[in-house]
Design a protein that fits this description.
Layout lengths: L9 E5 L3 H14 L3 E5 L3 E7 L2 H11 L8 E11 L2 E13 L5 E5 L3 H21 L12 E3 L4 E5 L7 E6 L3 E8 L2 E5 L6 E4 L6
Antiparallel strand pairs: 1-5, 2-3, 3-4, 4-5, 5-6, 7-10, 8-9, 10-11, 11-12
Length: about 200
């Protein structure tokens, strides 16, 4: 299983609120044929009956011929921190005996936890694709810190001759803008141009 601080599947949604993430989890639960059996500000529990061989094995381990069809439950615990929401998932299987006792067992196999982690990762990616980080349009006086592996500057705004390559860690001062181009310099002589955003991708 992928190592996580909690030891359980977990993920952090950026640019999100508790309500955003709660709605995303509820929608995902419905999409896979489950139902929400518990919901409050910080938790969502998705439940679904096991089918076929999984149900048979779970019933053998937890119940008997008089117990209910085993149900898999996943509880998502959410914690907001600024504009991000951290989610930790706990999953288990339970069945109810004839006299009402509930027997349960944690889903702790690597396969089940990895599958749940992958599902959370996909949900995070889908959410963040739909909520992209707002683009900051540079203005004169801004300092660009190069985070791209490499970006090139040119001798004019538009198709021009390459002046030099900048690398990750370089700092560039913006002197002016021209449509999508920034006039920049690393040494105080503003004579080069870059495509806005090309050095911070």
């Amino acid at each position: 299983m992928t190592e996580t601080p909690s030891g359980h599947p977990e993920v952090t949604f950026e640019r999100a609120t508790l309500t955003d993430v709660q709605n995303a989890l509820i929608a995902r639960c419905s999409q896979i044929g489950g139902m929400v059996s518990e919901q409050n500000t910080n938790t969502v529990t998705c439940s679904g009956q096991l089918q076929g061989q999984q149900a048979v094995m779970a019933q053998l381990l937890l119940g008997n011929s008089y117990s209910t069809t085993p149900v898999r439950k996943v509880r998502f615990v959410m914690d907001a921190n600024g504009d991000s929401v951290h989610v930790v998932a706990f999953d288990w299987v339970e069945t109810t005996m004839a006299m009402g006792q509930v027997h349960s067992a944690e889903m702790s196999s690597n396969n089940s936890r990895n599958a749940l982690q992958e599902s959370l990762d996909r949900l995070k990616g889908k959410f963040e694709d739909a909520h992209p980080k707002p683009k900051h349009e540079t203005v004169a006086g801004d300092v660009i810190h190069v985070t791209a592996y490499m970006c090139s500057s040119y001798d004019q705004a538009g198709a021009g001759n390459r002046v030099k390559h900048y690398q990750k860690g370089d700092s560039l001062t913006v002197y002016a803008r021209n449509t999508i181009y920034d006039r920049i310099s690393a040494n105080g002589a503003p004579q080069e141009w870059i495509v806005d955003g090309s050095c911070t991708q």
